[in-house]
Amino acid sequence: xxxIGTTNPGKVAEIAALLAPLGVELKPVSxxxxxxxxxxxxxxxxxxxxxxxxxxxxxxxxxxGLIIPALEGLxxxxxxxxxxxxxxxxxxxxSGRSREVIDRLNNQRVLELMQxxxxxxxxxxxxxxxxxxxxxxxxxxxxxECHGWIAEEEKGTGGFGYDPIFVGxxxxxxxxxxxxxxxxxxxxxxxRALDEMxxxxxxxxxxx
Length: 208
Ligand code: IMP
Description:
The chain is α/β, with parallel strands linked by helices. It has a single domain (2-207), classed as Alpha-Beta Complex (Maf protein). The chain has 5 helices and 8 strands. The strands form 2 sheets. It has a 6-stranded mixed sheet, with helices on both faces. The protein has a two-stranded antiparallel sheet with strand order 4-5. It is globular, with a radius of gyration of 17 Å. It binds inosinic acid. The site of inosinic acid has 18 residues, from strand 3.
């Protein structure tokens, strides 16, 4: 059995779909964990170890987000709560809003900041740091990216987070939210990181 440590139902669905061929039982777990670091790698490590401590077993954790070079790398590690971020002080004030509401506000904020910015400066990428840990020990880690650009407006209803404003390099101008889940899962940053994890898991089945 592998625990999946995340509070994000969109991520759980993607991880479960991508790891289904492993044939191992997956169990989502939800904990409220601080993400104090300024890199995805460090936040993912903190989360993975905290989740593994909590579950007592092998646990996948990840930290991911959207990076826009024209906005000095924002939303970056603040992707989940970008609408609540004070850009000057880089402090987040929790507004207590639901994930759906904050996702919409995050997208609106990115679109506002990108107004007047033209190609090729609309370039953006999703990045993920994915770790597998057991209590006290990181067993595996992988970092992956997926490149594209920011659309002029929100389009599509699929996926989660920034999917309605992110156009992939090879999605013929469609946002990730306009793709069916299988197509998004073929090309996403999460898919790339999970492919490596899949290989590791196949060679380390005795741990799972
Ligand atoms: P965290 O890793 O829980 O801190 O949150 C990452 C945030 O990045 C999510 O809440 C989304 O807003 C965004 N994000 C990460 N991966 C994706 C993706 O595949 N599509 C759209 N947004 C994503």
